[in-house]
Protein 1
Amino acid sequence: MHSFQKKYIITGAPGTGKTTTINLLKKTMSCMDEVSRKVILEEQKNNRNGMPWGDIKRFSNLVYNATSQELLTSDAIICDRSLLDLEAYLVIENKTIPNYLRNFSYQDTYHKTVFFAPTWFDIYCQDGQRLQEFDYCLKLEKALLKQYKNKGFEVVMLPKVSPLKRSKFILEFI
């Protein structure tokens, strides 16, 4: 098992360039991939409904369990999203936030600084695991910002520039 170190978070609504930026950062540091997409792919492969637009409670449980395990064993410096994102998804669906999220030790797990990729119509595209309409992404963005600020995180907005420039921005900041 690795010694635990706090992770930096890159978050934002779907289709904002988070994963593309993280893939560039992987060339210089260890990064944790987005667990949500892995869960969605597995659910689709097995004809199950644990997705943000389906059974969001199942989705939240699956993502929480997989992320918790990965956080314990990963030496990653940066995470593609965090467990707090689940709270934002649940809030916009008017679902109760489960105790395992409400009581999660966010401040002990993640750095206080969060990098936020804003919604960006020019780069947004749907795919097989990103079915949300752009308007939904705007609602989720507001919920994400509110959740992070309410938990005491300092949100640093990523500029709407190329993934390479974004990755350099993050590396200089860190």
Protein 2
Amino acid sequence: MNKRIYHYALATCLLTGAGACTTQKELQMPERVSVPVTSAPGTDTLSLQSFDQVFRDPHLKTLVDSALLHNYDLLSASRRVAAAQANLMMARNAWLPSVNLSLTAGVDHFADYTMTGVGNFDTNKSPNINNDQRAPDPTPEYFAGIRSSWEIDLWGKLKQQRKATYARFLASQEGRRLLTTQITAGVTGLYYELLAMDSELTIIRRNIRLQEAAVATVNIQKEAGRATELAVQQFTAQLLSTQALEYGVKQEITSLENQLNALMGRLPQPITRSTTRDSVTLPPSVPTAIPGNLLLLRPDVQRAELELSAAQADVKAARAAFLPGLTITPYAGFNAFKAGLLFKTPASMAWGALGSLTAPVFNKKQLKAQYNISTASAYTAFYDYQQAIVNGYQEVATALNKVENQQQTFALKTKEVQVLQQAVSTANILFTTGYANYLEVITAQKNVLEAELALVTTRRNVYQGLVSLYRALGGNR
């Protein structure tokens, strides 16, 4: 049977012309770029991708879980996945015949100089028919039954379309996973920004108390004749400057809380988080080698690869469209030209089938244009896939270096703060004993404040580097 169908297809090509059944050349993709990726020996690289193993703050986990449940962008992405799944269902069933219940009624008046008109006239004069078989003029037409249409997938066009749709469905799932990773990283980054602001607020308030004590001390010394009004003014100005910093940090905290609430799909409200004392520790060191197995599992890389697969399948389907198509259209039901006779069995029962082989002749320009569009889309998808790999490699490399460098910076900044804190104590002692002037005390206090704030910033950068690394490796919840 299959051989006979292909013979008919060949005959159709010959009848419609030698060029009617020619198709386009197969798609040849450029050579893929090779990216040198290695894994650190003896290191569990999966721990770099696992959120729970890297970020162990219970309050953060609660916020992330809430965002993944209520974020509107993520809910919208879930609907896009559902739509892609519905498209996949249609593509999977495209090879099946369509079966439709048909109830039709119509009327025709045939001209006297037509085969049907002459035939009806002669038939009505025949003594071999009864009154029920005489065709009225005009002639009604009634049909009640089933009509079907079935396109036989001779050249795999429907199969390639199904393959493309399935790849795009998987790509939509990877797109949702990418959005999940981005939202998780966004919540985590904002959370550690918030903890850093809390630490800065604590440091500023502690310095305000120290500077208030310094202002009180210098006022006492002025009354005793050991300090001038200028010293009082300088200490007071420093206190006012530090107090102004407090309100700036408060505004930053409010802004960060509102951004976190927006990611969680809720109106502004207080964010429950760890205390400043709990947030001063640093995470453990991470390996410096780039884990290649995780790099290729990034959702954007996976999505780009699936889009490339879908585009290549589109090209194959476009090539198959140049070849003849076989369609079978059967029907069965009740047929009569009088409504009262429609269901009079078995005389009113009718059935039939039509098979047609069609090959494109005059619409090849449109088919060629569609082929060119599919080919261009395939090359675009290929370049997007290559760029996704390159982007992933540089993001992971940058994040790894950021974490390592910021951890080294944190160690040095910690020592700097310790030295400057000792310098403040020394300056205060020397000032009260008359061996240092007020400018040296103010400078020491200013330096320690700046160093403590810089230490908080460095610790925040370490966590932000880990968040970037988590996102660069694709995330895992």
